[in-house]
Fold these 4 entries.
Entry 1:
Amino acid sequence: MTPTAESLEWEQCSTCCIQKLERRLQHTGELLRRHGSIHAKDEVKEATLEPHFTDCISRDLETFRCWWSPGSLHNLSTLGALKVFYLKKDSPSSEWKECPEYIHENRECFFDSNHTSVWIPYCVQLRGQNITYFNEDDCFTVENIVRPDPPVSLNWTLLKISPSGLSYDVLANWEPPPSADVGVGWMRIEYEIQYRERNATNWKALEKQPHTKQTIYGLQIGKEYEVHIRSRMQAFVKFGEFSDSIFIEVTEIPNKHGLVPFTLVVIFGIVGVLIVILLIVISWQQRLMMILLPPVPVPKIKGIDSEMLKKGKLGELNFLLNGGVLDGLQPYAKELYHEESWVEFIEMDKENEEGGDKVDNCNSDTQKLLGLPHRNINGLSVISHPDDDSGQANCYDTDLPEHDTQMLIASMLPSQPENHQASLDAPASETGERPLIQTQIEGPQTWVNTDLYAQVSNVMPSGGVVLSPGQQPKIQENTTGSEREAQKGGKKSEDCGDNEGIEDWKKSEPQFQLLVVVPEGSGSTTKNNAQQTSTPPNSPVPGPGYQTIQPQPMETKPAAMTDGSQPTYILPESPQSQLFTPVADYTVVQELDMHHSLLLNPPPSHSPSLCQPQHPLKAPMPVGYITPDLLGNLVP
Amino acid sequence: MSAHIRPVSPVFVVLVCLAFCSRLSSMKAASICTNGQTGCHFISLANLFDRVIQHSARMHGISNDLHSEFELYFLPSKNQIGRVSHNCHTSTILTPNGKENAQRIAREELTEVILKLLVAWRDPLWHFHQDMAQHHEFNNFSSNKSLEMSDMVHELRKGVQKVVEKMQMLGIISPSIGNLGTPEALLASDSAEWRLMNDYDLLYCFRRDSNKIQHYLKILKCRIVPEHGC
């Protein structure tokens, strides 16, 4: 049972090894039995020198042959010494029969179709003269010992060569073995092709399939391949012999060279062009976006830069809206409002000693409004003089209205300069003829960042208007206000009776009051808006921190006054009585005059003569206020 | 969703109706064909034969696999056919044991043998499958194969009966073949000999018989419709 090698191992091992060996041997024997192979028996029989059968094979399921070996007993090797007997178990009463056909040269017993029955168990045995050599493993059924012949006419054709020119496919075809009667359907055969390179050792097997052709893929050009085929019955395990090998070789085909690099060049060229286009699109993205999708113009307000708004520079915005008092910005502002005729700018003097933008504005505006002639007022464009005035003797000083208007404007604009300079007095003194409407402004008046407008918070019964304060102006009163007033009254024969409003700014408290007083009975046609009224210092005081200017025709007017209307100058209160009440932040613009300038109090309509008669105020006017119904009082 | 389903559902219904109607028409065509018209070739006999032959080949393959697996478990001490008394219950059925024998006997006889074999194995395979399911030492692969095997026997029997009917309709064979669905045939097949066999012998016998069936069908086809594949 055990080969010699196994026996040696068996001697050398310990007990556990013995057990392993036993198991291994058992398994080996069983495997051999399972496949019905009698080959293992050769080794066994040789060891025991018994005559035995080497193999029994059927080629076509119709006949079968058995070969035997005499063993080591050479005395039985002579012809005829051994006989073959078989038993066909087709009935319980079957008997052993002798081999129907001997082929002694091969020690072969051939069973022809008459003696062959499929699906019936056969048993064969050897008989000597007196000994029967029989092994139960020599029983079989014919279908289990079938090994078909190999196919014939194995041939191949080239299917295709790969585009790279390195590999190719081959279609192999063959004929079924002639011995196997496939045509009648008696045998159903499946085939297995194996191939290998010329000098390789391992065969590659393709999948078994019952058709008579099969494709071999992936053969390489330039190499020689060896192919052979074998067959077996379907659903059985025993293969037949291999056929003779055929050799396949395909050499290179030179005319295919040009195509491959050409296609590669084309592909790479296309890829490169695409990359370049992509880079161009990425780099010029902005320009392309501008070309393809031009930006839609957004609405804009002239003169207002959205960027400035974003930055929150409200002061500059105020400045611009004010008309650009600063020299540097004025032309800019003028350009902004170039096409709008109704906008006229105040052109302020450069001699603003304060230096600050807002301070200058406030200063000049306030002073001019109040009639302080410290400034050289040039080109007052916002509040323009009537042309009529120029022809005649000055009903009023050209400066004055400017002063007045500027002061008025300054009053309108709460963001007034901080200081009303004492120099205001100087021009006033120079132009004695001017109806000096000198407010209490003297000394530095610092205007702190006041708002653009001042709200009228209250109207005094005396006619004064109380404005709520925007910011904190510092106001110092002008002590000489009353004197000026008197001077004005004396000198102002030609005065057309300005109705000038005097604005008072008191600085004692952080309150800003604006008092605009309309002079009583003063029919002076002041083209300027300024109506300055001054209240006597002893005007009733509405409250603390309050200074009202009551309209009083108290000033002595020169007899030259035509209509006898006396300009009333209401001086601001003396600085002693400083009344502070919250004043509004803005004033109300009544209307525009003919020159499209903002009027706090619309001028009374009158004859175009420069020297307009003073219009007596028929009725006392409310302070700082000319209501439309009071307009008639002003009209001569 | 319902709004979408609504227009789809009638379309779907129409499609289903079309599919069924086509089937019905084909079946009607089949019923028309059974009236004996010779020009009816919606499924040719050769095609039918091919189908049953493929089926039998597969059945034999499965039986071979099961038999090989059983050898792993049982490890018979002898050759797979070692025992003399391999008494299959189908041994009583006379079957041609060679090619010439199969070619010589009448078509009807050959067909009858096939049907007998198929009928004889229906119950034993079913019980074999039951045994396989109960004995958990067999893996699921074997259990599935046993179930498939029993089903295939059943299917193959029906298929062969269809072939027989077609052959009888075409007049190839005489209608003298007894209908094996009759109670007499069933009683005959219910010999209960197979209950005495163990599983391994049963598998061995069925493996042999499935091979017989396969060969007989092939022979029968090439005798009756020898156009192609023969």
Note: The longest helix of chain B spans residues 2-33.
Entry 2:
Amino acid sequence: MGRLFIEDAKGEKVLMCKGCRVDSASYDDIESKEFQGRYGRAYLFRKVVNIVIGSSEPRFLSSGFHVVNDIYCSSCMQLVGWRYEIAKEESQKYKEGMFILEKERMEKKGG
Amino acid sequence: MGGVEDDEPASKRMKLACRELKGNPNDSLLSEPSFGSSRDLMARLLQSEEDEVIGSKGVIKKVEFVQIIAKALYSLGYKKSGAHLEEESGIPLHSSAVNMFMHQILDGNWGESVATLHSIGLKDESTVKSASFLILEQKFFELLDGGKVMDALKTLRTEIAHLCASSNQLRELSSNLVSFSHGASVGSSNQVNLRAKSRPKLLQELQELLPPTIMVPERRLEQLVEQALTLQRDACVFHNSLDREISLYTDHQCGRDQIPSRTLQILEAHSDEVWFLNFSHNGKYLASSSNDQSAIIWEVGTNGEVSLKHKLSGHHKPVSSVSWSSDDGKLLTCGVEESVRCWDVSSGECLHVYEKSGPGLVSCGWSPDGKSIFSGVNDRSICMWDLDGKEVENWKGQRTLRISDLEITRDGKQIMSIFKETAILLFDREAKSERVIEEDQTITSFSLSRDNRYLLVNLVGPEIHLWNIDGDINLVAKYKGHKRTRFVIKSCFGGSEQAFVASGSEDSQVYIWHRGSEELIGKLSGHSGSVNCVSWNPVNPHMLASASDDGTIRIWGLNSHLQQHKKLQQVHSNGGSMAAAYNGRT
């Protein structure tokens, strides 16, 4: 693969990809800690770094019908969560454009 | 002379005259010279098509069109044709008053010419004044040249004085009288230089002073044609030639055939992904660097064929970039967060290894005088070394990120690097001042134009932004269409007058845009892996090189070159005694 472009996540406390230890997101950008992913607890983030966004897929989640993209660590291409593209329910629309990172795939750094 | 003193309005007078002429379209007027019969011509003009327009858009006035053609004929020296055109069309180039005026100037009838000036139809009083001044000034100088000092003085006092724009002007003219009489009294053997210009020259100056509605400006037709050609050339998005002739027969539109679009060569000497490449300033060499921890210097032959010159081994990390010295005699290579090595281009020898104990180096660049090298460090500082390896300067603080390009302007003053995720720092090391380019998304790489006035910035988008950095910093253009999700992908300027922008892309293609119009004009396929970097030969606008994850470098050229290359291969395989006959182009 080419010369990977890797950014550093800002802030004191950061989440890194467990597989390759490249920054994925900053704790400063956490929107909510109360989410459930495929593998357990997950966090909702406003912003992520070093992430590749997959193609759009329709999916029924516990919170209703959504169009989501699976997201991968750009460094090791491990599946790390998903991104909300469209939420059908009005009450869920606030998540559009935000990212879910699975705690099971992440490692804490700093703080 | 003419009927300019009539009381009746001219149009009425003319219309009466034309009723008489109506029955004789092909009469003997045809053989008369234009000046004398212009009044009759005016008659025919007013009768027929004064307001007529021609052309598909109906914006060209026929009278004006014919007049500028007549003017062009005269200036080309075709006096007979010009006169004939005026006759046949019934459209005189100049009104009778103007014709008379021109005659009077050329004949030196100064007083009469000034009088005619007042009846030519000039609305602006100051123009009348300036023109009168020019005429009388000519009279003054001609009198002086003729030795008629007293007459000259009289003219100055009675006729010119009140027309002078300032007392300085008057004084200057007066001084001519003094120096003339001095010259005369000393009885010098020197030739007294004629002060008066030639009358045709005076006429030319008057023409420039008078509004175009009174006298058609010189070379107006040529001017209009040149305007059209310039517009065509600027609109031609494929224009990429050094010396292409523009014809008047058809609108100028280079076909796509002027843009490199065909693979001429595949260079396979790297054993891993090729991350970077750059042509030398003189276009004779190409340097590439790879994940295989080496760099290669290639030579561009006179027939455009690229061959391996030196393989540069020594780094223990992938080589992320190279930098050519101004004279192309030396090359710098940078190992990722490791060291910078300096190589001699002709021998391939490693001249020096620059490193710091502790932090690794992340970028490299030459000072224009070739006496120092610059390098970004992964502790965010930038340092400068002399050729012996002594660290001469160190700019601390946040000056660069770990992944950043380094550019130095030709005057050696400004150093540029990515110093924040979304910003580029341009700092003047002499003036110790700093400027910043702020972007709205993360920057991955950038490059400086050859004239140092523009910066091409690659963003994560992916998107490429063109910034003007000469004077005020401002965003000029945006280029989109290529693909990027994970890697550093580089773009560059190129082509004739750097009229194009080219970029690599993760979809394995080379993208080319027309710089001015932002239009995507080419997508070159061939590579089987992400294209990480492109470089356009600065001396040959038809040669482009690309570096790819497939481990190869492709040299791209024009479709027509491909046909020539194929012929060359055929000749060689025939046991070519004719090989020398092919004298290709660079």
Note: Residues 1-36, 185-191, 572-586 of chain B have pLDDT under 50 and may be disordered.
Entry 3:
Amino acid sequence: MASPSSFKQELLKKWVLGLQSCCSMAKDMGISERKKAIKLSADLAMASARDGRTCWSRAVIANASKQNESKILVQKILGSECERLVKASSIGFSSCNKRFTSKRILRRSCSSLRRIRRSAPKRVQASSIAKRMVKKRTQLLKGLVPGGESMDEFSLIEETLDYIISLRAQIDVMRCLADASERLKSQ
Amino acid sequence: MAAFSYQQPTFLLDSAMLPNSPVKMPGLFEFGLGLGLGDINATCFPYFPPQPLPESSIDNLDTSKNVILSDNEPSMTQKQRSYSSSLVVGLESGDQVTQDETQKMDKRKKKKNGDGSCSNFAESSKDVREGKSKRQRKCSSASKDAEEDKRRADKKVGEEAPTGYIHVRARRGQATDSHSLAERVRREKISERMKMLQGLVPGCDKITGKAHMLDEIINYVRSLQSQVEFLSMKLASASPIFYDFGADLDASLPKPPVNLAPPPTTQSTQASCASEPTAFMDSTTSFSTRNNYPILDSSIAAGFLEQGQRPNADAFPQKNGNLLWDVENQIRSFNHQSNFNTFCSFQ
């Protein structure tokens, strides 16, 4: 049972690990590269602190482990559980994708049949407008939440919940570190 | 109406409705996610609520889909007793209030008895709504319905335990085929989660439509992500400390003067973010030498986190928030050459 502060502590620990490894690799990085490295390690720390229990965290890990540059970082941050988590992420990802694509094919075939049967409605109903709006926004949200493409609406909302909370924790930790470094520098 | 409908499920949901309440959602949706995933752990991610909630109740949520709070039973039985007494009085008078009492009685009975089935929550919430729709009927039939409900509830309690189906009662004047019932259950699950999100995203108390809620959620997630970007940029340019943990820093690392683009401002950028650009500009001045810093360990981590928690007005509970302004002042007068560990000993 993790309390919020212990989650943040774990996040910070893993992030520091990641920072150590990525910055020992190349000290002459440009600022944008450094920023990317910091962000990546923070994201990976956040995802690994969730221990692979949520879909978005697995998606983050899977994406990172696919890219060659970040593989070492992934290994460092995830530590001992690296292999297990990476495997779980990739498996979950592929199964989600398969499910999603098969659903998509079904939906498309059904909708094309429906279109043939029905004639074009002359008046557009308010409910259909509302549905379209909701659908558009759901698509947007799926684009925002990592790994959101292959989720149905209910799990998408749950993932968003968890993701928002973890983002907040991550921001807290990063802000702490930034403030502390500033204060120390100002002395 | 809202108060009535949310009384029953869990204390977690109740406090989720409160503004600025600590977030307990992750504990709840652990079980939902576990459905397709195969490895539901008992560990979850609950935050400590302001009201005393037994921790094991969250475990119950995790392990089963039930909303049974077995640890709350002593309080429940007390309530039951009080409700039973009021129920007797109410039945005699034929008052409409008995509807509410009966419903609560039924729910608590089911809560006590139904153990392994996953239907209680859905069922009880249906009963809540059924109770509401019944209020619309005439007063005279109120007492009769109350008794019928009780009888039905008693029967159902016996049926529930072996089956584990989700029992849903069709409301008056609604379709009763399985598809629409399932659709309704799904919709209600979704609306539940949306209400949780409403408590989480700031400024969403008055928004009722799904599309608007999703708009706000999208904006909030975008703003959070941009904050992360900004903070990582700040850290990247602000200090070499984070690059040389455990190693000596060079006397003066040549840093090119950094022209920073202003942080990406979104509609819902928090106020604290606005103050950061000014702080950030200060940090681009040249820095002095630093001696070697020991590698951060967990105690230091705790110190950092608690130090920074104070200014945050977020919904996380800040148990130790008050104690560390003192620490912060001490940090200001802290000599940067001395060890971090002494800093941590203030905790």
Note: Residues 4-186 of chain A form one domain.
Entry 4:
Amino acid sequence: MESLEALVAHIQGLSGSPEEVAHLHSLLKQADGEPLRAHAAALVPFLAHLSPETHSLGYLYLLEACATSGSNLSDFGGGDFLVTIAGFLTACSADQIRLAPDKFLNVCRVLKDQVMQLIMPIRGIAPLRAAVRKIQSSPEQLTPVHADYLLLCLLAKQYKAGLSVLEDDIFEVEQPKDLFLYCYYGGMIYIGLKKFPKALELLHNAVTAPMSMLNAIAVEAYKKYVLVSLIVNGQVPSFPKYTSVSAQRSMKNHAQIYVELSTSYSNGRYTDLETFVQANSAVFQSDNNLGLVKQVLSSMYKRNIQRLTQTYLTLSLEDIARSVQLETPRDAEMHVLRMIEDGEIHATINQKDGMVSFHEDPEQYKSVEMLEHIDSSIQRLTALSKKLASIDENMSCDPAYLMKTGRDRGRFDGRFDYDDYDSVPHKYF
Amino acid sequence: MDVEGEVPAAAAAAAANGLGGAEEASAAPVSAEQLDVEAYAAQYSGRTRLARLLFIADRCGVEAMQLEALRMAYDEIKRWEDVQLHRDVAAKIGGRLGPRFGLDQAWVDTVTRRADQRKEKLENELNGYRTNLIKESIRMGYNDIGDFFYAHGQLSDAFKSYIRTRDYCTTSKHIVQMCMNVILVSIELGQYAHVSNYVSKAEQTPDSLDPIIVAKLKAAAGLANLETKKYKLAARKFVETGIELGNNYSEVIAPQDVAVYGALCALASFDRSDLKSKVIDNINFRNFLELVPEVRELVNDFYASRYGSCLGHLEKLKPNLLLDIHLHEHVETLYMDIRHKAIIQYTLPFISVDLNTMATAFKTSVTMLEKELAALITENKIQARIDSHNKILYARHADQRNATFQRVLQTGNGFERDVKSMLLRANLLKHDYIQKTSGPRKM
């Protein structure tokens, strides 16, 4: 085993071009392991000699050895070490670190653990965000760092920071566990930002993902899914047929209280719902869902008032209070006022007569903004369709698929026919 | 059938005072004329007369009427041989009509003994026929046994016996006879699925049927549909019933009943054009309606939009209809449907309607009317909105252009969402598949 100085010299020397880096990589792999870790304490000063951008790969190996050496990080001067890691994550070169993804992931994990231990999650946000971008091979790929990053955003209540990562659509997933965590934390962030439709989308993905056995993350996601769907739609849809069998069978059993909540909600009486919530508030609290449940309660008023807009042109505040089961007309006025401000209904309150006049949605779909909105939607959807078509085409040319369908067809006919072959799609050059 | 005994449902009948006690009270105050039990029962014969009398006795709250019904039932039962019913009626009378109307044990014993004897005889005969394998005799044997059971109130046995004649029917006349027997017993048992079944069987016989039989079948079919709540089909069958029915089916239904049931079901379920062509202009059905002029007035009022008087007639008829064994469970639903149709029809031609005038037309208060309208609007049966301040109903037609835009945007969003999740799921499955083919790997 070379001495540390020699190793560092190699790193400094061989970080120029990609071939050199490859050579360096093999050297480092040789040097990696327990011996390196044993010298962990000694490594730190050497790190100062290396620069994170140019010597990323070497830096990474040394850093990872320090981080996973098992000794307490405070030995390395705690906070400073954190700064070192953070600096590295922000500054490293993406190409080099992609050669050793596991190590990179380990380092990120260590950062997250450390930050959580110090109860300062906000310090981990910026470095991890950079890390996400660097390790992703394409913006559509999900990495384990995503889940950690979102967790930190949640703990630090920096929901907007989480948005930048959530806005990319994910199409490639390597580890299903990452997906569940990503969807769950992402859903919570959207709930925090009150963007309930998007939260619903993410939670829906978590609940309907293919899984051979039920996992706890999916169950928690389902509980939130029920609550958010009550807020958005007023009802909980049944499982679509692509949900996995294990989910369909046992999901509801683990979330019994929530199912009862949704039936109570659909009966439409506020007082019943309220008593139900009071009775079970301990359960909701233990699931950390009490806040969301309270929002479900208030959404019931909103839904009832919205229903009134469909039937009446003007309605007195007492009548509103009575049909929505509020206490006084003043409460009704407050609710209606808040809904008007939030843009959920279009109405005017006439305080003199105590009347509310409901108006039609003034959107005429004639403005320039609306046109742009429609145009961009169309473009987005066309791109999506193309993507879908290309994936379908690729799939049809996949040898495994051809073998399966060819085999079925063969079984049916009992012999190979040229006609059969012709109808199987070929890739056109 | 005497004109005077026109179903009191038809004549200026009204609820007896205490009648509201048993059922929901009728809204309009009515004069205290009671259902003439004797005349009512005179229209029917056979077991249905008994059933109806007992039903009236159970349902009406007026003691006098109850006793009258029970008395008539008692006398009627003596003519038949149903021992169980005799016991029931005697128990119900409870000695209130004097000693003559008590449980007549001697009669019971004689009848039971006679019945046993007859049963034995019939069974022996049947066995004899069966060994002889003479189809016609076997058929008649089963028929006789069926009749015997029917007379004794053992309805399911009667049903079974009648069904068994099926195998031995040779001509279509036999088949028809079998069907009619089965229908009769099924109606009394309340098994209306069988009724519909056998009606269609009877109608499919190759020979052309006697018009009376056709009418009977139509009436029975209508009854079956009514009881299974298929009001539109029931109405169609009733209006197609030929007038030849007359009194020939009095063991099941009287022609006044055909008129009443048919008219009510038609009002509740037909649309305007059907109402005109099938009910008002239907010469055949007009004959039935003549028997119940009140109902005829009712239908005409509805068609001519005189809703106040129409609803008034309905209220008057209600108490007696509640005493009818076939109609009583459906009265509320039918009335509600008719009322809703009236309201919808009223609002159809207008752009705006003053709720006060509408309330007087329908003889209800403005608040009640507003509630009813709100319910109908929520169910999307009326396209309108209520101006609660000025108490006006404005017709409102959805703006198609805006609605289309909204729907398009929504569909686009839905598509995007679904395709994205699908691609994600496909990807997950692919990884799963790859892992499976490349052998077990640590997850």
Note: The first helix of chain B runs from residue 37 to 42.
